[in-house]
Write a structure and sequence with these properties.
Blueprint (H helix, E strand, L loop, with lengths): L1 H14 L4 E3 L2 H10 L3 E6 L8 E6 L3 E5 L5 E5 L4 E7 L4 E5 L4 E3 L2 E5 L8 E5 L3 E8 L10
Antiparallel strand pairs: 1-11, 2-3, 4-5, 6-7, 6-11, 8-9, 9-10
């Protein structure tokens, strides 16, 4: 019985696993620089304690690549996460809609509940960038 439950759990993880895309740091920089300014966004709070408000970029769609090299266009939404690995092997996870490019630094929020808790990553230190939908139940309420 225990083995059946465990096996079912792992099979379900494989079925619902998130698709991961890549983007070059040059492409990310270019796409972020093409957006101007920020806007105040409001999303639902999955914990049902009122909505959450934060500053978001104006990026509507981001161009990414899958593992086979095919180009995809993802609509920017509050559940999209970006994972940046630096040359020093440090890993940072942030929400894509909070990213901005400012003075050779990529900045972004790592928390929906504390949007001021953010990372600032020097552009030249970036080695690898992955993007995926984290599957969190966030949705814009004012879009």
């Amino acid at each position: 019985m225990y083995k059946t439950i465990l096996l079912s759990f792992f099979v379900s993880l494989l079925v619902v696993s998130c698709k991961t895309y890549t983007i070059s740091k040059e492409s990310l920089k270019k796409q972020l620089e093409e957006t101007v300014g920020q806007k105040e966004m409001e999303i639902n709070n999955p914990l049902y304690f009122g909505n959450l408000t934060y500053q978001a970029n104006n990026l509507e769609v981001i161009e990414v690549m899958d593992k086979k090299g095919a180009i995809h266009h993802l609509t920017n939404k509050p559940s999209l996460e970006i994972r940046i690995t630096t040359h020093e092997k440090k890993k940072y996870t942030m929400y894509l809609d909070t990213l901005i490019f400012e003075k050779d630094t990529i900045k972004g929020s790592r928390s929906r509940f504390s949007p001021n808790v953010s990372y600032a990553i020097p552009y030249e230190s970036i080695q690898n960038i992955l993007i995926q939908d984290g599957g969190k139940k966030f949705a814009y309420t004012n879009k």
